[in-house]
Amino acid sequence: MVNILVTDKIDEEGIRRLKEVANVHLAFGIKHSELIERIKDYEVLVVRSATKVTREVIEAGKNLRIIGRAGAGIDNIDVEAARAKGIKVLNTPEAPTEAVAELVMGLMLAWARRLPQADSSMKQGKWLKSELMGTELRGKTLGIVGTGKIGQRVGALAMAFGMKIVAQDCVIYPEFVARTGCEYVDLDTILKQSDYLTIHLPLTPETRHLIGKRELSLMKPTAVLINTSRGEIVDETALVEALSSGKIAGACLDVFSHEPPVDSPLLKLPNVILTPHIGASTHEAQREAAILISEKIKEAIT
Question: 56, 277, 287, 295: which one is catalytic?
Fold first, then answer.
């Protein structure tokens, strides 16, 4: 039977399904050096985000045929090195769609209704009813950069709140336009028009620092940037400057260039809402990711 090494914790249902067709070994939290030593004995490696599948790991995987990522992004895998050796890289971009989309809506609502401040002040014994005047999402323009599965789901949810939707992508999805009334525009236009700007792109050399000083300068001073994709898509130095100087009103960030963002200036800014990369952290999304990756691996090895 095929030998599978699982180095990050995935839902038990995914492991159960893999055990139907293979010998499954669990090594949660394995050190990089130990992974390099052990990987030669396995045909399949299953990871989430903690394990870094570097070129060294791939080169050491003499029998490695498949790398499975129970999640959307594959930037923790050296895909180029894997493909050079004929190793399949499988992932589950469809799994966290609902979880991430709902987090985006939650962050917008938290910003608009000042929920973090309301909660904090109440717990301090304060009653700041008049001071916590908010705004509504209805009638605001939501810019969506990247209209894959997550971006489209965000658009559908935002439409239910009565938001106007503009989008930017290298691919135009007619069905998305028909469902939401969204208008596709170029990046500069979406930056200028958006009250809220949400990013749903993979991290690639082309998207790294896609939102930098110039792009932030085009946004409204009342605009809020939301990033639940990958931290390095936004130039954090430029973002801190824009937030500190009032070039934009605020930001809601679930991802960071370095995680955790120890000593980041973002931690000290009052006009940001920060969450610890929890976009896909729902029981439903994690179960779905584990099931999907197990089924894709089973199909690939049988």
Answer: 277
Tens digits of residue pLDDT in 190-227: 999 999 999 999 999 999 999 999 999 999 999 999 99
- Best CA proximity match to 30, nearest among 6, 65, 55: 6
Give the rounded percent of residues in the chain with a pLDDT score beyond 70: 100
**CATH assignment of 2-95+283-301, among 3.40.190.10, 3.40.50.2300, 3.30.750.24, 3.40.50.720:** 3.40.50.720
Predicted TM-score (pTM) of this structure: 0.91
| Active-site residue flag, 209 | no
pLDDT digits (tens, 9 = 90+) for 268-285: 999 999 999 999 999 999
Catalytic: 230?
Answer: yes
Whether the Cβ atoms of residue 92 and residue 293 lie closer than 8 Å to each other: yes
Mark whether 277 is an active-site residue. yes
Is the model's pLDDT at 165 over the cut of 90?
A: yes
Catalytic residue, chosen from 230, 232, 236, 288, is 230
Yes or no: domain 97-274 corresponds to CATH 3.20.20.70: no
**Distance (Å, whole) CA 285 – CA 97:** 8
**Measured between alpha carbons, how far is 49 from 150 in angstroms, rounded to an integer?**
19
> Among the options 34, 259, 284, 299, which is catalytic?
259
